[in-house]
Amino acid sequence: MIEVGELTLVDAQAPIASPAAISLSEPKDFVALLKPRVMSLVVLTALTGLVVAPVTMHPTLAVISILAIAIGAGAAGALNMWYDADIDAMMTRTAKRPVPTGRVSGEAALAFGLALSLLSVCLLGLASNWFAAAFLAFTIFFYAVVYTMGLKRSTPQNIVIGGAAGAFPPMIGYAAATGTVSPESIILFLIIFLWTPPHFWALALFKLRDYGTANVPMLPNVAGERATRIQIFAYSLVLAPVGVAPFILGYAGPVYGAASILLGLNFLRHAFAVLKMADGDAKMIPAKKLFGFSILYLFGLFAMLLVDAALKVALGG
């Protein structure tokens, strides 16, 4: 630019910023902030909690309620990526996320997360009830503030305590239908709560260097590989029977019972293989297999609960 008196002329040789240089953000980058894969699990578990409730919601209100819970999960994910941008940039697993790469600014991620938080809570309150909405607000706060800002960088038990945030969605779904919680929804909570440590510690075993570089005190970095493998197996021993509990307590039928037993035995098989691993195993194949199967395990359990509920309706139960 060339200024002449009060006039401003454009220098033909001066570079002009392109729109891409002004903002690198694309819609897909904001979708990535929502952590879609985590959101899909939240939708499944929240829907299960809503479906197993003894109260039938109007289909439209049920869909809006699940949408609100999904938006709330996405909001928590965006707030997590905003705060964790510094350590995400250090880890190979997270380095390509929108904020550390600069495709979305930290300010935009924060504003996006806060706006979605408010939207999700208000939407759930209007579609179902304000108890469920308050529960959702607490869950977002717990994940974004208690876990992300507090526990994650301060204690190797971050996943154990922080895992509660990921275990709340089925209780929120149940509360959306009933306005309360119950033993059934608490069992669904416990399944996810007990599943979280072996799932994430298996990941931490083969991403040990990543967490070490980012100075995140995951259990393998603090207590060592052997202690982590023992705790993975210990949690798995408790998880397997709790996964069968909906059948044992009469909340689910024999189809779920058979599936949960088979899934639980396979989880224990993978966890035992991790327990028998040698320290310093470079390939970490058992840990990788457990991590992959753990996702299938949780999706399988909650999908079978939905199938079981559908069979009850079909059979007039």
List the helices and strands and how they pair.
Blueprint: E1 2-4, E2 7-9, H1 19-22, H2 27-33, H3 36-52, H4 59-83, H5 85-88, H6 106-127, H7 130-151, H8 158-167, H9 169-178, H10 183-206, H11 208-213, H12 219-223, H13 225-248, H14 254-275, H15 285-314
Antiparallel strand pairs: 1-2
Helix pairs in contact: 3-4, 3-9, 3-15, 4-6, 4-7, 4-9, 6-7, 7-8, 7-9, 8-10, 9-10, 10-13, 10-15, 13-14, 14-15
Explain what the structure shows:
The chain is 73% helix and 2% strand. By secondary structure, it is mainly alpha-helical. The protein has a two-stranded antiparallel sheet. The radius of gyration is 23 Å and the shape is flat. It starts with a strand and ends with a helix.
How confident overall, as mean pLDDT? 90
Distance between the termini: 77 Å
Instruction: Provide the CATH superfamily of the largest domain.
Output: UbiA prenyltransferase
Instruction: Report the strand count.
Output: 2
Task: Specify the helix fraction band.
Answer: over 70%
* Structural class by secondary-structure content: mainly alpha
- State which percent range the strand residues make up: under 5%
Regarding CATH, which class of the largest domain? Mainly Alpha
Please give the largest β-sheet: 2 strands, antiparallel
How many helices in DSSP terms?
Answer: 15
Enzyme class: transferase
EC number: 2.5.1.141
Subcellular location: Cell membrane
Organism: Jiella sonneratiae
